[in-house]
């Protein structure tokens, strides 16, 4: 017969109290050393966990911002390079006039006061016809509308080309050139005396359209290095149809993504920002070019921030007062800045949602781990004090209340939470898990995992559960000595109902005692939406990369327009043949595609020279490839894409660029990219005469073991000749 004063220990969760309430106050016991230590440990565990969660979320926010900074920098860079390339092409037209030796002779005739009148007339007629042809052929020709005017009235247009004396006098001009009398022209002319080119800044012409003036000095025939210009080639043209389309980013995938040009508004002492190109949003002050402006306040204006700090990245209100990500890029040789903006909500919204879900999940794991530790400690303490019936009753009542509280918390979480024993049976499940199974929480208790969540998921989860329990109690039940308390995490992919499902699980070991065998607290989070969103972002990212590659390739010589993609495909095939990991093979392909990105800053003339570049031009080209690595270094690839680009110009024998690395110091992926780049340069005439694929293969094989890595060459040749690589990369 059991002693009624000292009942046998029972599970407080199953205890039933039928005795009447006791009026006397509960006995207050002083805290002992063990209690204080347990509370202190629990407090430190909780504080440490909270700090860790906050640090993780903060690092995620910073990583997301770094990704967007890099992406926006790439867009601003390509748009800025497009404008600079266009400007350079316009100056090239005027340079062709300024460098024409025949035209210089005619200009000398016009400037020579002792020249005969018929000589001057002949020179003027020849130059006028020449300028007219150049103007019509290169877009410096916009005749005025036909009006009924007297025949002796000179008709003025808005565009043309002229030869102007240093004094500002027009010596000869193409037809319909407007009078060069606007404020600032003479000043620009004087400033250009010691320069190779000058810019008569954008302004509204007589038709109310943005117009731009360009100035190039004309030097005497056989001029010395310190010679002064004898005249200037001046070009005027309307630029809306040329410059404004350059603000459109190919492959734009953001609804709120926008690019536009700004400058400090003349005559405002730097206090006002002027919008040079049209804006997307209709505003009361208009969206037409050069008719809108805003205060030059970097805190309240994205445009002002980009203008004052080109290259800096921030979040500022757009002209439509929408919080936006912003980054600017200075246009060389002009007062202009390309402004790239995107709505903060569109850009960062998915990341913020994902971070919030992660914060909730991590907080829940931390809370449940703390609760488990507290419950375990409390349970052990009550077992040791089981002889005190009054305290057992109070503990039971408290436990019941706590269980209800815990049930309320867990039932209102979006994650599935359950306690499972070593045999895979549920002893506890929250409402999220039960509803997913189509049963009540009470019905889940006692059922096996395969019966509730299906055999496929159950087999995966039980395998991890067994590992967790075996680490905690290697000899259970014969030996109850504790081993390592080691929670485990898992990410899983399943197919349910013909659709992919992704889950993330936490497996937290639950300590056992005399009455309760060890088990696992299993927390399952459905991350399908997160994975789908990530894959969408990755597709968007690859699409942006593809657009950049297309943009870069379009600036290459005709024979090299598929250069980047071809390098990437060959590099990946060679990497796989070398036995590199999927991550390394992916890094090799991306590096091959992106290594020419930095060449957007190079002139068209330099790019088209190929193997005819001099040493200075080859250095600029090599530096541009290194700049590609800098442009993508802020993006988080799985593999070392940026470093592969940096090492792609290194050579096996140590003769490469920039650090003269050799042998095993060079990444394997960089070795195979170097082979692919050399092969493509040979077949596309970038290193001399164009070679056939077979000739190029013989060339790279002859360089194996010297400038090129022998293993990378062998793998690339084997891929192309024996693995169907020619067809795969489009060289069949």
Summarize the topology.
Elements: H1 33-98, H2 101-111, H3 117-137, E1 160-164, E2 170-173, H4 185-191, E3 198-204, E4 210-218, E5 231-238, H5 240-243, E6 258-264, E7 272-275, E8 292-295, H6 302-308, E9 313-317, E10 323-330, E11 337-343, H7 344-384, H8 389-411, E12 416-421, E13 426-429, H9 431-437, H10 441-444, H11 449-453, H12 455-472, E14 488-496, E15 499-510, E16 519-526, H13 528-554, H14 563-577, H15 582-594, H16 604-609, H17 615-632, H18 641-647, H19 668-683, H20 693-702, H21 710-722, H22 725-729
Antiparallel strand pairs: 1-2, 1-5, 3-4, 4-5, 6-7, 6-11, 7-8, 9-10, 10-11, 12-13, 12-16, 14-15, 15-16
Helix pairs in contact: 1-7, 1-13, 2-3, 14-15, 14-19, 14-21, 15-18, 15-19, 17-18, 18-19, 19-20, 19-21
């Amino acid at each position: 017969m059991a002693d009624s004063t000292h009942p046998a220990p029972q599970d407080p969760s199953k205890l039933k109290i039928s005795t009447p309430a006791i009026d006397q106050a509960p006995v207050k016991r002083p805290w002992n050393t063990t209690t204080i230590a347990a509370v202190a440990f629990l407090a430190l565990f909780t504080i440490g966990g909270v700090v860790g969660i906050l640090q993780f979320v903060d690092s995620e926010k910073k990583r997301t911002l770094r990704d967007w900074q890099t992406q926006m920098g790439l867009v601003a860079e390509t748009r800025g390079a497009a404008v600079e390339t266009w400007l350079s092409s316009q100056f090239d037209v005027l340079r062709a006039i300024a460098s024409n030796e025949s035209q210089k002779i005619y200009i000398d005739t016009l400037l020579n006061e002792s020249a005969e009148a018929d000589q001057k007339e002949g020179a003027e007629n020849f130059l006028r016809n020449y300028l007219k042809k150049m103007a019509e052929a290169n877009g410096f020709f916009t005749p005025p509308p036909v009006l009924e005017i007297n025949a002796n009235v000179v008709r003025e247009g808005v565009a043309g080309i002229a030869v102007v004396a240093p004094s500002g006098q027009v010596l000869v001009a193409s037809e319909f050139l407007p009078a060069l009398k606007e404020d600032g022209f003479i000043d620009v002319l004087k400033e250009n005396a010691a320069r190779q080119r000058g810019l008569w800044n954008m302004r509204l012409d007589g038709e109310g359209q943005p117009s731009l003036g360009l100035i190039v000095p004309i030097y005497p025939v056989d001029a010395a290095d310190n010679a002064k210009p004898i005249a200037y080639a001046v070009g005027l043209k309307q630029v809306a149809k040329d410059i404004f389309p350059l603000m459109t980013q190919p492959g734009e995938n953001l609804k709120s993504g926008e690019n536009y040009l700004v400058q400090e508004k003349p005559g405002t002492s730097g206090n006002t920002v002027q919008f040079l190109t049209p804006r997307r949003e209709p505003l009361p002050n208009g969206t037409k070019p050069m008719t809108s402006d805003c205060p030059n306040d970097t805190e309240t204006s994205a445009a002002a921030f980009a203008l004052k700090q080109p290259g800096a990245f921030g979040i500022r209100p757009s002209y439509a007062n929408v919080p936006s990500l912003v980054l600017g890029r200075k246009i060389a040789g002009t007062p202009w800045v390309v402004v790239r903006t995107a709505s903060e909500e569109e850009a960062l919204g998915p990341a913020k949602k994902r971070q919030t879900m992660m914060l909730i999940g991590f907080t829940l794991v931390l809370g449940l781990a703390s609760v488990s530790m507290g419950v375990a400690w409390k349970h052990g303490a009550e077992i040791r004090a089981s002889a005190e019936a009054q305290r057992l009753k109070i503990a039971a009542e408290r436990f019941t209340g706590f269980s209800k509280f815990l049930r309320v918390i867990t039932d209102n979480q979006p994650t599935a939470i359950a306690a499972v024993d070593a045999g895979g049976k549920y002893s506890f499940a929250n409402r999220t898990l039960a509803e997913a199974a189509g049963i009540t929480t009470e019905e889940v208790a006692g059922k096996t995992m395969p019966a509730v969540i299906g055999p496929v998921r159950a087999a995966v989860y039980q395998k991890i559960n067994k590992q967790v329990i075996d680490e905690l109690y290697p000899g259970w039940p014969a030996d109850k000595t504790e081993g390592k308390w080691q929670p485990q995490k898992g990410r899983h992919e399943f197919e349910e109902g013909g659709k992919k499902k992704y889950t993330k699980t936490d497996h937290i070991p639950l300590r056992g005692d005399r009455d309760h065998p060890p088990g696992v607290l299993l927390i399952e989070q459905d991350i399908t939406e997160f994975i789908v969103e990530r894959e969408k972002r990755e597709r968007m990212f690859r699409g942006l990369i593809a657009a950049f590659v297309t943009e870069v390739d379009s600036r290459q010589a005709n024979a090299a327009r598929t250069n980047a993609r071809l390098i990437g495909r060959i590099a990946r095939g060679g990497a796989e043949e070398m036995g590199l990991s999927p991550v390394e093979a992916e890094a090799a392909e991306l590096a091959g595609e992106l290594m020419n990105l930095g060449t957007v800053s190079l002139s068209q003339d330099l790019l088209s020279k190929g193997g005819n570049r001099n040493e200075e031009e080859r250095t600029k080209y090599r530096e541009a490839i290194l700049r590609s690595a800098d442009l993508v270094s802020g993006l988080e690839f799985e593999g070392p894409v940026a470093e592969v680009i940096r090492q792609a110009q290194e050579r096996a024998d140590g003769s490469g660029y920039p650090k003269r690395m050799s042998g095993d110091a060079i990444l394997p992926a960089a070795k195979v990219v170097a082979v692919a780049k050399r092969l493509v340069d040979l077949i596309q005439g970038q290193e001399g005469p164009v070679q056939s694929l077979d000739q190029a293969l013989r060339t790279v094989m002859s360089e194996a073991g010297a400038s090129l890595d022998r293993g990378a060459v062998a793998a690339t040749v084997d891929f192309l000749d024996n693995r169907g690589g020619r067809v795969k990369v489009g060289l069949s």
